[in-house]
What does this fold into?
Amino acid sequence: MRSWRWRVEARALVAGRTLHRLAVPLGLAGLTAALRVAVIDSPAQPTETHHVAQVFALAELGQSLDPVSAASAPLAWLQIGGYTAVADAFARHTTALAAVREAMIFVAAVCALLIWLFARRMALSRWTAAGAVIMVALSPLAVSMSTTVRPENAALPWALAGLGLLWTHNRHRSLAPDLWATAFLVIAVITAPVTLALAPCAGWLVWRRRRKRLTLMLASMATLGVGIGLGATAVFDGLHLAGDGPVSEQWVGLDPVLAATGVFAAVGALFSYRLRPLAVGVLSLIVVAVIPGGPGSGAVTVLLPLGALLIAGTIECGVTHRARIGRHTLVRPFLAPTIALALTVTVFTVPAWIGGISAASAADHGPSGDAATWLRVNLPDSVVMTDETTWVELVRGGRPTAVTTRPAECAPGCPGVSWLLVTPALRADLRSGLAAVAERSRLVAVFGDGGAQIELRAVD
It folds into this structure.
């Protein structure tokens, strides 16, 4: 009886210690989610309209739309759509954009926990792990990128989990973690092919364990899995590797200090045995991000958490590195310059971060609601074309899909389209054929003013 009581008390003590250790990462994950909830109603980015429409079609209509753009990502849509369906997000939010962004906020919180665990797997201190998570939580660039509906955000948890499982100092261990890591990385690549740039990092982690058979087996499995997955994706929807949306330089402009510090840390980390694999992965993503016409913005999305982890790790290495002078004297030659540089970057960065987060504004949904009401009353059976996010809102409001079309469904010249609902998103992404249709249309009604203005135009 006494031994049973001791076992119960021991288990309770272990559970209490585990909960205490998880208090900090869970709190940081909550902070990460809270800051993104604050901007969930910010104006839609041109890159997310297509993804929002696809997720809505899968989760609510039970079908896939027929995309022809460079933003095709079926597995990402399935994952995001699965979350919105299980969480009933479309029923709880007034706009479809906020409903889909909720999934991105959940992913951001999960990534915060994974960054913490990744740092601990790298044998970095808890302070360093917390610093990496705080950088991702507060950076305006990270907030903007992680809140935007993108396939790369859906792939990030898989990539972080896979690399974290591969990161081990034990040369001989059970095979299960390596198999799980390979599976996670394959899912990440199929979800967002830009994560293939992390292959040098993963390969280095396996190769430095000096186990040839394990290296060949995992490489073969990864190659086979990625080949089959991307092949199936290409058959289903075509394989697209080009980027969409603003180029990486435009995104980096939101937080140039973090970007410059990340590049500096990646170069410096090449001289550290512990950080070198991650530095190789970060530099690979930087190269992909600056390729003209490549998936620049997607590479920046994947780069942010890994770059923050590398910056924090480099600072720890600079503070703790010891060098021997003579036979007995140990010194820390990089302690003073590392602390000075870190404090200088912090002084310039934190005010910019606070200002960037507070400057985020909520979108005005009044004009779109007024336009939807006008269409329902005056044009219930006329074919109307609009951008994909507004298309979702019109369908959610009960308008039949037969009389509500998207630019992706427009044949050359857009025959059969009688009306154009020109929203800010559609105005920013007018294609050549659609621009010609807009030129031969006449203005009928205007809803709202300024940057949120919506025009209803009749096509002649």
Observations:
- The mean pLDDT is 81.
- The two ends are 89 Å apart (CA to CA).
- The chain is about 65% helix and 5% strand.
- The longest strand covers residues 441-447.
